[in-house]
Predict the structure of 3-hydroxyisobutyryl-CoA hydrolase.
Amino acid sequence: MNHGDPVLLHTEGRIRHITLNRPRALNALNHSMVQRMTEALDAAEQADAIAAVLLTGAGERGLCAGGDIRAIRDDALAGGGTARDFWRDEYRLNARIARFPKPYVAIMDGIVMGGGVGVSAHGSIRIVTERSRIAMPETGIGFVPDVGGTYLLGRAPGELGTHLALTGEAVGAADALLCGLADHFVPSRELPGLIAALDVCTTPADVVATAERYAVAAPAGELAAQRDWIDSCYSAGTVEEIVERLADRGVPAAKEASVTILAKSPTSLKVTLEAVRRARHLDGLEAVLDQEFRVSSTAFTRPDMVEGVRAQIVDKDRDPQWHPAELAEVTEADVARFFAPLGDGELGLGPGAPAAR
């Protein structure tokens, strides 16, 4: 094992460890890391000696802050296609994780955002801690929730997922559990003991029982107490109506949400709302990933993603100039273009398509 590798692999007992190892970049995913993880899962599935997979992130700050969006922006500026190749393999990995036949334990400690959600929240045993901050913040960079994020958020209770998708708000452990993004809360101080206990498990059932044994009740979150205004406001038919309801609700948190939303890309907001609502009616994760690939491929050609990454990551002036700049300027036809079939360029994971490997 080369400790300079961006993905570290080793086996303890019958547990195959996968460690994302770019701590200075908050373990942001690149294409080679996705390929390495896919190969590791293929090998672990085929090995009778492996009972489960354990995913962790190197460093103290988090599991994974998402995809390497600076590299994606550079590719867009160069008119390249490597970002689409990355997404194609990344989304296939997300599907691979969701149907992995052995326990896939993800330690979602610290920051878990975007692509980090994709490699963890589709797992079968998802552990959060008091340090967990989980988000799909794509509307703030002129992009859209992907990696199966619209599948997960579309299935959250009530309109909680819509709220998180539009605002990009990060949630802690209790709210992640409430929204179906995680399964168990384990205090961070107990993680070394949990991992050591997992390493001596000999069967998948032992792995499941061990995770349950270490789980305790999470400290109270915020979203449960906000369900009334969230469900009422976000059930509106359009982003404009949602913002209006939030602003008029008379609740400080709702007003704050309206201000947060209006700072995001108008195009991203409208496409995100449509994507989450369509995802609720699609036939499973793989069909949603097919939809997300169409949306991502179109977003890649639009100006807002390049501008959003510039403002948030490159220049860090936090002053993106969206095009168009107002919600009213984004038409239904504009939104529909993001969902148009890609012909031979489809991802092809959904019903009737070849299985993703």
In short: The longest strand covers residues 7-12.
